[in-house]
Write a structure and sequence with these properties.
Strand content: 15-25%
Structural class: alpha/beta
Strand order of the largest sheet: 3-4-13-8-9-12
Bound molecules: pyridoxal-5'-phosphate
CATH architecture of the largest domain: 3-Layer(aba) Sandwich
Distance between the termini: 46 Å
CATH topology of the largest domain: Rossmann fold
Order of helices and strands: EEHHEHEHEHEHHEHEHEHEEHEHHEH
Number of helices: 14
Helix content: 40-55%
Shape: globular
Number of domains: 2
Length: 363
Amino acid sequence: MKTPHPDPPPQGGRESKPGRYGKYGGQYIPETLMAAVDELAAAFDAAVKNDGFRHEFEYLSRTFSGRPTPVYRADRLTQQAGGTEIWFKREDLCHTGAHKINNALGQVLLARRMGKRRIIAETGAGQHGVAVATVCAKFGLQCEVYMGVDDMARQAINVYKMQLLGASVTPVESGSKTLKDATNEAIRDWVTSRLPAVVVACVGGGSNAIGIFAPFYNDPVRLVGVEAAGRGLDSGAHAASIVGGRPGVLHGSFSYLLQDEDGQVMATHSISAGLDYPGVGPEHAFLHDQHRAEYVSVTDEQALAAFHQTSRLEGIIPALESSHAIAYAMPLAAELAAADVVLVNLSGRGDKDLDIVRGASGG
Ligand SMILES: Cc1ncc(COP(=O)(O)O)c(C=O)c1O
């Protein structure tokens, strides 16, 4: 299977023109935003070519964020699945407990370079908001985070964390976010010695999956994105944008979208706040149409079972988002040859989800 990407992303990826992945992506934004977007694009292009900027990003990724994170063999889960080896990419070990810090650090360094003093973010599970608030605290920047009121209730600890870090959290009716991860050199090193047969990652906005897929684009590795099937695809209460949606425009970009016959964006449901979003980053739409990545879905119930199984068998409490990927990986591992490896992106920790899991498990 050959990749459509000649270079490792993030931004060096196969954009047919800036911001486009085939027919997906684009800039469906108001005229009044164009100047700001152009300014950002120019600043980004200059920054990534600047040795000082890259050095600072790499230095802080190592010393502040705790990267590169290791890969870890999940022996007891492997035994339980009864097939191929299951490995975790330990993004849950990053500072602030998820992959979000990679993006937040890059964005804030860029904003500083552009002379910006006020950082605005939106967040679903709160992990992205916490990561942005953390980096803003480090650099003394003003930080304002918009968060859906339901998410504020179900991820109250993260709201408190953001406030502790000095950010102001503004409640809104609904909301999530998309991110793009930083490239993952650790995986690159690792894959030179051993390629996994399959890489599995959950897909909300799509950032953690793109981050772990990208280093494998040119390798004979299956890439699987796991969306949230919520209470089941047939129930209508899900957030599987690619599996259950069709292309449309949301939040300025053309990509797969959960929409009704009239093109109205549909309400979503997932037990996991970070997957509870009706759209998906356009690069995934492109990878899907190119058949370079496969997209599947996992229900709330299956994700919860994987959450408990991983906690008990590995001593690692995974985020509910990541639990979707594990739930898909387990039966998959059972089907594959023992000599193969399934690499699961453990995108974050489950600390933020304990109340939800306790509620769902009736205890
Ligand atoms: C731990 C974790 N994993 C995954 C996601 C889903 O987002 P994305 O698909 O952009 O990685 C989130 C979002 O909040 C998250 O907190």
